[in-house]
Amino acid sequence: MRERASAAQFRPYTCAQSQLEGMEFRLVSSDKSVMILTIGDGKLPGSYKLYGYVKSENRENTYFRVGVAISGNRNNMIPWSSCTCNDAHFRGNPCKHSVKMKDLFMSNREQFLKENVRR
Ligand SMILES: [Zn+2]
Fold first, then answer.
1. Are 39 and 26 in contact (CB under 8 A)?
2. How far is the CA of 55 from the centre of ligand 1 (A)?
3. Dihedral (C-alpha) 85, 11, 35, 102: value to the nearest 10 degrees?
4. CA 69/CA 21 separation, integer angstroms
5. In the chain, domain spans
6. Whole-model pTM?
7. How much distance in Å is there from the Cα of 53 to the middle of ligand 1?
8. pLDDT per position as a tens digit, 46-92
């Protein structure tokens, strides 16, 4: 079962790009559709937990709040995810926003680890 995020943690449910300006993101995709705010260790060695924002593909100037855990194994499974989009809410599976955040981190992981001490 997936964890339920507390309401406080995931308010506002969506936000505009202007609301994200000035925040210090640790990893941002080139088109700014994925913006990762925090990158931390997951429960198991080599696993990660990310929080940030991912842009909606259908709704203009709308970002969802996304949290995703990535297992450290070769398959890079998503054992836990949370997103404020309807798909995540009603289907419960990792939505495309969670997958996009995972993909951005995984494609930058080596460089990120080189440049940053994990916190
Ligand atoms: Zn989503």
1. yes
2. 9
3. -50
4. 25
5. 14-115
6. 0.83
7. 10
8. 889 999 999 999 889 999 999 999 987 767 789 999 999 988 988 88
